[in-house]
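for the recovery benchmark. tokens below, seq after
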């Protein structure tokens, strides 16, 4: 199986920057893609950015040009750099792994990390 541990996040003023990390362990060769999702109070969880095992990336329109997802395969870690943060970016951020191989069809979630942007 795969386990995910997020770190980073915190409190920042509007216009500032934060980064979050998602460290994967276990059978990481079964990971097809890792995505960052966020959930604000009272709202549904939404996909923010995703990176595939081939390096293809995608972003929600609301964060394009401000957030950058990347990975370090040697560390089995996916990062998301968040710049020009807005109060509406405030949410709990979760990383998610879509599995293939023996874990095909399985989604694994991290525990979440809080990002708060003050105005």
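predicted aa per position
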């Amino acid at each position: 199986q795969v386990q995910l541990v997020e770190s980073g996040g915190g409190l920042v003023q509007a216009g500032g920057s934060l980064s979050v990390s998602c460290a994967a362990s276990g059978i990481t060769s079964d990971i097809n893609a890792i995505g960052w999702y966020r959930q604000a109070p009272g709202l549904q969880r939404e996909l923010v950015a995703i990176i595939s095992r081939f390096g293809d990336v995608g972003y929600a329109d609301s964060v394009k040009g401000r957030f950058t997802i990347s990975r370090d395969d040697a560390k089995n870690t996916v990062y998301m750099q968040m710049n020009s943060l807005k109060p509406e970016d405030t949410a709990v951020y979760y990383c998610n792994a879509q599995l293939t191989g023996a874990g095909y069809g399985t989604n694994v979630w991290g525990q979440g990390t809080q990002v708060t942007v003050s105005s």
